Amino acid sequence: MSNLLYPALKDFEHTIPIERLNVLRNQVESENPDPSAGSLFNYAWGLIKTKGHKYNQEGVEILKELYRKEPDIRKDCLYYLSMGSLKLGDYTSARQYIEELLKIEPDNSQGQAMKNVIEDKITKEGLIGLGIAGGILAVGVGIIGALIRRKR
After folding, report:
1. What are the tens digits of pLDDT across the range 79-92?
2. From CA 83, how far away is CA 53, in angstroms rounded?
3. SS3 content of the chain, % helix, strand, coil (to 5)
4. How many angstroms from the chain centroid is the CA of residue 17?
5. Per the UniProt record, which residue ranges are transmembrane (predicted)?
6. Phi-psi region of 89 (alpha: psi -120 to 50; beta: other; left: phi over 0)
7. What are the sequence ranges of the domains in the chain?
8. How many CB atoms lie within 10 A of CB 150?
9. What does DSSP assign to residue 20?
10. For residue 142, what pLDDT band results from cuts at 50, 70 and 90?
C-alpha cells in the first residue's frame, strides 16, 4: 500500500509506541467507572494504531460500542472501525463500515482512499487465494496422474 497512491492514508501504516498507548489507557482508567467518550475514542484509536491482533480487536470492540452510544462521533468511529477491520483482515466488515461512512459523507477523501485500499486488498487476497487453490489443484492432478501411470 503506497502512500503515494493514497496520500490521505499516510498514517495507516504508522504505529504508536506502547508507551503512548499506556498513556491513553491510564486516562481511561483515571475516569473509571464512567470514562468520557473522548477518552475511550482516543484509547480505541491507539489500540487500532498499535501492532498486534489483540490490541486491534479490542479497539474495534470499543469503537463498536461508541458507535452505538455516541451519535456525535459516529463518522469517526466508522472510519477507524474500517481501518481496524482492515488490519484484522476482516475485509467484509471494513468495506461495510467505509461504505456507511461514504453514504453520510460521499466526498470524504480519506474514506474514498480507504475504500480503494480495501478493494485492492480484496482483489489481491482473492488472486492469492486463486493461486493457492490452483497450486493445490495442480498437485492433486499430478498425484492422480502418477497413481494412474503406476497402476498401468
Report:
1. 999 999 999 999 99
2. 13
3. 80, 0, 20
4. 19
5. 127-148
6. left
7. 7-151
8. 7
9. H
10. low
Distance CA 47, CA 42 (A): 9
Residues in the chain: 152
Domain spanning 7-151, CATH class: mainly alpha
DSSP 50-112: SSSHHHHHHHHHHHHHHHHH-GGGHHHHHHHHHHHHHHHT-HHHHHHHHHHHHHH-TT-HHHH
Across residues 119-133, what is the average pLDDT?
66
Q: Could you tell me how many helices (H) and strands (E) the chain has, helices first?
A: 6, 0
Q: Give CA separation, 26 vs 20, 61, 147, in Å.
A: 10, 18, 64
User: What is the per-residue pLDDT across 54-100, written as a single tens digit (0 to 9) for each?
Assistant: 999 999 999 999 999 999 999 999 999 999 999 999 999 999 999 99
Cell of residue 29, nine digits = 482508567
Three-class secondary structure of residue 16 per DSSP: coil
CA–CA dist 42, 59 (Å, integer) = 10
